[in-house]
Amino acid sequence: MSLLTILEYPDERLRTRAQPVETVDDDLRRLINDMFDTMYDAPGIGLAATQVDVHKRVIVMDVSEEKNHPLVLINPEVTPLGEEREPLQEGCLSIPEYYAEVPRALRVHLKAQDRNGKAYELEADGLLAHCIQHEVDHLEGVLFVDYLSPLKRDRVKKKMLKRQKTAS
Ligand code: GNR
Ligand code: NI
Question: 46 C-alpha vs ligand 2 centroid, how far in Å?
C-alpha cells in the first residue's frame, strides 16, 4: 500500500491540464492502486491524478456507503443530460475543511475506459453525477472554488495559505 501526497490549493500544479492516456499498462494500474489507497485513506469519494501531481486523464472514485464499489475513469468524456441543475455541498481533498454548494447537472452520461483499457458507458445522477463532474474538472485544472464569487475564493485562499503555514 502506497499513499501519495495530495496537492493543496492554491498550488499552481492543480491548474495543469491533464493529458490523455494512450496505453493502459501495469505502470498505470500501479498508479490507480496507489490512488485508491490514497483516496480511501483520506477519506474521500473521488481522486483525480492531477491532485497527486500526475497530469494524466485518470480518476478513481467510490461513492458507495460500504466503500466496495471502486470505479476507474480513464479518458472520461462527460455529457450533461438535460438543463436541470442541482446544488450540492461539495468538499475537495485539495481544499481541506472547506465546503460550499456547487450547482451541477443533475444527470450526466459518462464514457470512459476501465483499468483494463476497456471502454464503458454509464448514466449517473445524484452524488455520483456530482462527483464525476468535480473530478473531470480537476483534469482541466478547475477547482470547485472557481464557481464561487472572487471574494469568497480569496477568503478560501487566505485560509488555506494560513493553514499551510501552521501545518506540521
Ligand atoms: O471526498 C470528496 N467528496 C465530495 C463531496 C461532494 C462532491 C465532490 C466530492 S469529491 C471529494 C474528493 C475530491 O477532492 N476529489 O477530487
Ligand atoms: Ni477534489
Answer: 7
pTM of the entire predicted model: 0.97
Catalytic residues: 135
Measured from the Cα of 90, ligand 1's closest atom is: 6
CA distance 49 to 43: 16
pLDDT in tens, the chain (168 residues): 899 999 999 999 999 999 999 999 999 999 999 999 999 999 999 999 999 999 999 999 999 999 999 999 999 999 999 998 989 999 999 999 999 999 999 999 999 999 999 999 999 999 999 999 999 999 999 999 999 999 999 999 999 999 999 886
| Protein residues placing their CB within 5 Å of the ion ligand 2 | 92
